[in-house]
Design brief:
Protein name: YGGT family protein
Shape: elongated
Distance between the termini: 11 Å
Order of helices and strands: HHH
Largest sheet: none
Oligomer: single chain
InterPro entries: CCB3/YggT (IPR003425)
Keywords: Membrane, Transmembrane, Transmembrane helix
Number of domains: 1
Pfam families: CCB3_YggT
Family: Belongs to the YggT family.
Strand content: under 5%
Helix content: over 70%
Structural class: mainly alpha
Length: about 100
Amino acid sequence: MEPLLLTIFQLLFVVLGLYVWVLIISAVLSWLIAFDVINTRNRFVYTLADIFYRLTEPVLRPIRNVLPNLGGIDISPIVVILLIYFIRSLMVNYGLIY
């Protein structure tokens, strides 16, 4: 495989792994805000929550539109994480990542 193409796939593999962590941190942060452990009146917390919301919402919104309403439970981050792991597994199995 071309070295440039291999480098692009390796970069994509790492970015997908980092995005999984962004999804996890966003979910934990939303739980902390929902249970009033931290509040958004603190400017730093508000900015952090806004950054994670802007990073995750474009990916999670289409998934939420497809999934049925489960009350207060949002499983869209789990679905996206499973999709990311599936894509990463395909990259490894097809030899795109060494």
